[in-house]
Design a protein that fits this description.
The longest helix has 28 residues. Helix content is about 80%, strand content about 0%. With about 100 residues, it is mainly α.
Length: about 100
């Protein structure tokens, strides 16, 4: 997430261009997508979850079954959901479950 941090703290503060902030949020969203897929794969390998071919269902499995194992609180979960919703509405990014 170094590139996203750089875009937010350095480039955006200099340029004040809203597209830069949107791009940074897209990078953050894609990073979280990769993290979530990795966690789901790990949980599947440990036989703690059953995955679906439907990516939206897998995202719900992550939120419903995996988070308790990783110490995320409700505020963090809601923030992550808001990020994905924002990105979906912002540019219809190509995250697999959006």
């Amino acid at each position: 997430m170094t590139s996203a941090e750089h875009l937010v703290y350095i480039t955006y503060s200099i340029s004040k261009e809203s597209k830069v902030l949107g791009r940074a949020l897209e990078n953050i969203g894609k990073s979280f997508s990769i993290i979530i897929k990795s966690i789901l794969h790990f949980e599947y390998m440990k036989k703690r979850v059953k995955l679906s071919k439907n990516n939206l269902q897998n995202l719900e499995i992550f939120f419903d079954e995996c988070l308790s194992n990783y110490g995320m609180n409700r505020d963090e979960v809601n923030l992550l959901k808001e990020l994905f919703l924002f990105l979906k509405n912002y540019k219809k990014i190509s995250a697999p479950w959006i």
